[in-house]
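Example A, followed by Example B.
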Amino acid sequence: MAKYIATDTDKSELAYLADKITSMDAEQRSLFDAVTEAGWHCGNVSEIINVTENIHCFELQPGTTDVHHGAYSLSLADEQFADTAARLEETHNRFMLHYNMRRRSVDEETYSRNMAKDEGGVYTKQGYLTQDSDMEPIYRGVQDLPADYRTPDAVKRATPAERSADDDKPSVLAQIAEAREARRSQPEHREPPAPGRTNSGLCLSI
């Protein structure tokens, strides 16, 4: 995994990634190790952290090698072909002849690799890895670091557009002063006196 992390990576992100990995259970850690071994979503430390947030998107068949997977897959194919042939009694002989020729021409390793290519899977030291769903961009960069990890250097690395909305808001005192100044600049509005009354409120007699 270290080969995917740049030397100038923010230390706050490295600390956060280390804590995320430490908090994983054994199954999640095997998944994470398989993903990083395969090099999936490992362009930088931010992508790797996002893998930890989306570890549920991956599936691992532990201990499955390409040969083992191929043997298992071919055994399933045997069952499917045999079941289909049983339902097609009228063409059984011709069907089985075609199947046996196909079966002999494909070795287990080649079959498994072709199947992995179709599924988008890959064989790792941990087993056969696939991605079952798209990841969500939960972690995008230092701007998404929890408050406990947001050091001054991490905040400085975030671009203005990436900083949290709270960082861009004026202080409460500044907002109060701005509201007072806005009221002072507006002309004072007074209601005109009612007909038959002076400003003193007395009725004029004619």
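Example B, a separate protein, is given below in the same form.
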Amino acid sequence: MSQLDLLYRLQQLDDEIRESKKRLTKVILLQKETSQLKKARQRVEVAADELHKSRGQQTDLNLELTTLTDKVQREETRLYSGTVTNTKELADIQHELESLARRRTVLEDELIEAMILAEEAQEEDEAARSELADVEATWLQDQEDLKNEQVELVNRINELTVVRKQQLAQMSAGSISAYENAIRRAGSSAVVLLKNGRCRGCQVTVPVNLIKNADEGKLVTCDSCTRILCPAYPHFLMLHFLNVPRH
């Protein structure tokens, strides 16, 4: 395999390593809680808080109503027991009973409203918890898939890194230096194909003499983008299919 072949092969390896690392970063980020999951958790927290408040209000009203009912019974006992004979005191008891009756009516209305609100809060709490369960189940399944993909990507990157070292061992110092210089000048795609007399990196027409040199296996660079040029012959194109086998 010529140095130009090795350079093109090195570019393919570096491209896959770069894309694999890019995907690995995304996979790691995707393993954080999603906004949908956070919203579902927040909905449960709000629903639980509202349910707690509505039940508390219902309990307080029940307690107050019970206390009021007990007081009514005591006052009625005093009124009708015959133990109280003073006219003014009897009138006071009667007025107290009327006041208690009005308060009981208000409490009963408030209790009915509280019961309705508690029932609605219970329904919202159940709906929120059901939604959270569904969202969590989907998220956990995704996490399992992402963790498996993360392991595969790490293994793939390690494989490619080993192959890259082996590749570099076959290359001359001059080829490696030319490749590194091209990367610094042109970016990640340092080696590109020549096709129909054009550089595939910048799409600029390449002079005939540079095309001839590239066809002869010499290391030449595009005058426009400074990338290393490789002729688009079948033996170069076949390098696309010579990547490390996936397990």
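On Example B: The beta strands are 191-195, 198-199, 228-231.
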